[in-house]
Amino acid sequence: MEQLRLILAYDQGMEVGPTTFDDDNLDPNYILKIAKDGKFDAVALGKGIAEKYYNGEVPLIVKLNGKTKLYKGEPISRQLASVKEAKDLGAIGVGYTVYVGSEYESAMMAEFGKIEQEAEELGLVVIAWMYPRGKNVPEPNSPETVAYAARVGLELGADYVKIKYPGSVEALEWAVKNAGKSKVLVSGGEKTDDEEFWELVDSIKKAGAHGMAIGRNVWKAKDPLEVSKKLRKMFYE
Description:
- By secondary structure, the chain is an alpha/beta fold.
- The protein is 43% helix and 16% strand.
- The longest helix is centred in the middle third of the chain and has 18 residues, at 105-122.
């Protein structure tokens, strides 16, 4: 299995929209250069960006599903690209979001099950974005809920599970234990100030999580390569 401790995430264009970007990070080439020069283990892109911009200079994860923030109903994110398309684009792995607790979780789980089987046959790593959401989930980032989501990722067969930070080192440790042999990647989340961000990174390291899938706190930073260098030092040295 590929060793993925630091993934540079760039699927926010669909999920969050243009308010995420400035004149620099609006350009996918800028992100790909950070991924290469920052020595990230992989970059996570949607199908369209991968088709039009991916240059093969850094390992690729293709995010297979997605939705916009404009939709306000019960959360569901359906498959938009196939595992074979990802393989043909040169990907080493695929990612897929499951909104645990949504009324539509069974549809996403079933879709993920097929993706996991196809990816295994093609030798691709599978990352599950495990995000509790929906009207039945009043506290999506509570320790119990995040640990439950991590466990569901293991039960579904994911190689890696990407989860939100549940608020403390102890809570994240419990989530990591529940993920078992599925390796835990913690989401970097929205752009925060430097002190808050590095406190988060330190907590993730202390809790024994495998690494991070991080976007805005890198490519919206004043010096993305300095942040990347420091992250590598923390997770690899």
